[in-house]
Write a structure and sequence with these properties.
- Two copies of one chain form a homodimer.
- Chain A is of the alpha+beta class.
- Chain A folds into two domains: 300 residues, L-amino peptidase D-ALA esterase/amidase (4-Layer Sandwich); 116 residues, Ubiquitin-like (UB roll) (Roll).
- Helix content of chain A is 30%, strand content 26%.
- In chain A, strands 1, 2, 3, 4, 5, 6, 7, 8, 9 and 11 form a ten-stranded mixed beta sheet that branches. A seven-stranded mixed beta sheet of chain A has the order 10-17-12-16-13-14-15, sandwiched between helices.
- In chain A, α2 runs parallel beside α3, α5 crosses α6 and α7 crosses α9.
- The interface between A and B is large, with 79 and 79 residues.
């Protein structure tokens, strides 16, 4: 899949007609950085399209959902947008009526700054929960960001930095491919390091059956493309892409109040619009899937305190739901995650988690094995519920790399699911316990 | 409740007619301790009643369930037993047909040692998963333990030590009370420190709707009483007691393959047997509830790496199921647990977990507050979804004690649930990541 798409630089400004910027406007009210233990990191970004773009979004299904999520979910009906304003440092969650008013002011102030019609702006926020937005700082930041807009790699880097919270590095990608004879680009950036197990839907409403017991961290993702795509088609593509990427990752099993993915498609590549399931749809869909999956994996790799990443593949389940809950049980088990951290191929903890999951399983049918990333050569540790002859040393070698794949076959049916999961380390605990004597260390 | 019952010494041998012992028979095959980095800890215990006792049990609902659990669940139909053999160091789980044969040999060898009829013995195991039992050592241990039986406090201490794995201390209790004019005693011991979120049922079969997404650690609990109780009545009392104690605790959210609670009632106190819902039933039920809850709390307090314990009370839910899943979401959230470890009264993470739980909630109705253990004086941090005027300093003081209560009111109905939950610490991660260069450090 990867080789089909040429990677290009520029991330969200790689596609035609997009500009961006990232500025410091002191959303955390730390002062200018003088006297604070944190330097002035950029904390507000704008993403602007030259022309109105069709738009699609996916939002957290957390019932406690932040004001910016409510605003965006509401605005998806419009089908177009032209600018996105994003801040880090404050999630604008659990901020009541004031928070909703502040989020509305963020979009309308942004629209007025560009003289765009009402409804053209979208908003994303990430950071501490329960603190009202410092709106004077936000307004000053929007003005400065509007002045500093540009389309170089440096501009994209500034924006990618501005949306970071506990992330150790920015997360960006851009690819180029042919669509209906035209050269099309998709660019993306995202953030997220803790409170990460997204479960997003197009409206933020929950499906009748939850995809899992219900878990997340704030992740934000902004994708731009110069492809011409109808809003409904774009939403269909995004639903599929998120289902196979962001909704398949877990760092700590906590689902955030703010998880958001937005895609803007401005059509400047000049391709002909396409229908669902057309050949062009499939190409575009594969491309967006690729971008979303690469960005989602960057989140897991850069998760808080993360040392190792496991791709958990459950095959042979009776239903997709069974495969999903079994994969999530393993991917979120504290004991499994700590064993990964220790490089311990502890299949006992894995089969234990499979057994207590809501999936239907039969102990005597379960296979568990390991492979190198992307390899089909599996070293089985358990076959039909019984240990194989693989030695402890061989198994240790299989889980020693920074990334490996865990293969679970339930041998009951044909359904499968995958989760991209982080280990659990002392560094995660140390980071998240914070320091109550310095509340600026306390995350959302 | 507590003051109604007089605590007495002797734990499981406090009731009339019980004897016990705990010996070292080297179940882990470490050698005699010489040259090993672990001293010879006792690893096999017997609990014997002078006369056949009525029996009740609760067993893990994990679909991957250990051989001893299968044997015990099967033997519950018989309604009586006279001896329990328990080992630590090996869970006899995922050991296939050999494991089942070994567990059968453990009970039948024990029965033959005492010349008891077939079916008189029950068995419990805890320790590493996937390793077959060293049966020669086990048989030697049973013989030695049978010789060393006795009814002193020291005998009870030896047995309580023999069932420990990662426990830092033995967990025992005994109480005395009046039942139908007779003096009756109940004694108990338990173990468990990691892989702890039991979800037990009388047969090990799952209820139609799981009590939770499905999560556990091996916990074993053995309760003795000299009360005369019918087996069916005893099971009814135990179901209720476990529902409010062991099935309400979580250390790490992992449900074990081996969780077992057994109660033996030998009738030597001479009380008249009683019916369900009779006044005597209520007294006995309150007493067993007390013993089970005290033992369950000991498990959480001595959980692996545990620093703080929170009693999570969810009130005002629409249904008991809602109250339960909301309480479990909070009690198992990695971010909430690390914040407790840091002494951080982070209600943002708490409301986030409530919001992503499968419970129906409305953000604008949620109250969150803290109180001292057992106190009704609640310091509210959030009322109707909005921060109160409680200061950060006041809230920090509320979560600073080793144990505190967290109060969540959903304000949607009248159902409630409680969970007794441990924090998540670096010590937990460090312990459980183990050391692959020394496999004896790797837990089950």
């Amino acid at each position: 899949m990867k080789k089909e798409f040429k990677e290009v630089s520029g991330a969200i400004v790689a596609p035609k007609g997009f500009s961006t910027s990232g500025v410091f406007c002191d959303i955390k009210k730390l002062g200018t950085g003088k006297g604070s233990n944190k330097g002035p990191k950029r904390d507000l970004a704008l993403i602007v399209s030259e022309t109105p773009a069709t738009v699609a979004g996916m939002f957290t299904t957390n019932q406690v959902c932040a004001a910016p999520v409510k605003i965006c979910a509401e605005r998806m009906k419009r089908g177009t947008a032209q600018v996105v304003v994003v801040n880090s440092g404050n999630a604008n969650a659990c901020t009541g009526k004031q928070g909703l008013a502040d989020a509305r002011e963020m979009v309308s102030f942004t629209e007025r700054s560009f003289n765009f019609p009402a409804g053209s702006a979208l908003v994303g926020s990430t950071g501490r929960i329960g603190v009202t937005m410092p709106m004077d700082n936000v307004r000053a930041g929007i003005i400065e960001a509007a002045i500093l807009l540009g389309s170089t790699k440096e501009h994209a880097d500034h924006a990618a930095e501005a949306i970071m919270t506990s992330d150790s590095r920015p997360k960006q990608i851009a690819i180029e491919f042919k669509l209906g004879g035209k050269t099309v680009r998709i660019g993306g950036m995202c953030k997220g390091a803790g409170m990460i197990q997204p479960g997003m839907s197009p409206t933020g409403a929950r499906p009748a059956t939850l995809p899992h017991g219900g878990l997340h961290a704030t992740m934000l993702c902004f994708i731009t493309t110069d492809a011409a795509v109808d809003a409904k088609v774009l939403q269909a593509v995004l639903n599929e892409a998120v289902a196979h990427s962001f909704n398949r990752i877990t760092v700590d099993g906590d689902m955030s109040t703010n998880d958001t993915v937005l895609v803007l498609a401005n059509g400047l590549a000049g391709n002909k619009k396409f229908k669902v399931q057309s050949p062009e749809f499939k190409v575009f869909s594969a491309a967006l899937n690729h971008v979303a999956l690469e960005l989602a994996k960057m989140i897991v790799r850069d998760g808080e305190g993360v040392h190792r990443v496991a791709t958990v593949r459950v095959n042979g389940a009776k239903t997709i739901q069974d495969a999903d809950v079994a994969a999530r049980a393993v991917a979120n088990s504290a004991l499994v995650k700590t064993s990964w951290h220790g490089g311990d191929p502890n299949w006992g903890r894995i089969i234990d988690a499979i057994g207590y999951s809501a999936a239907k399983v039969v102990e005597e049918k379960i296979d568990i094995g390991y492979s190198a990333l992307g390899s089909k050569k599996i070293l089985w540790s358990l076959k039909r519920g019984q240990p194989t002859k693989a030695t402890f040393k061989e198994l240790c070698a299989a889980v020693a790399p920074k990334e490996f794949e865990l293969h679970i076959n339930l041998n009951l049916g044909k359904a499968n699911a995958v989760m991209y999961a982080a280990d659990l380390t002392e560094a995660y605990v140390d980071y998240n316990k914070g320091d109550v004597t310095d509340p600026t260390t306390l995350g959302g």
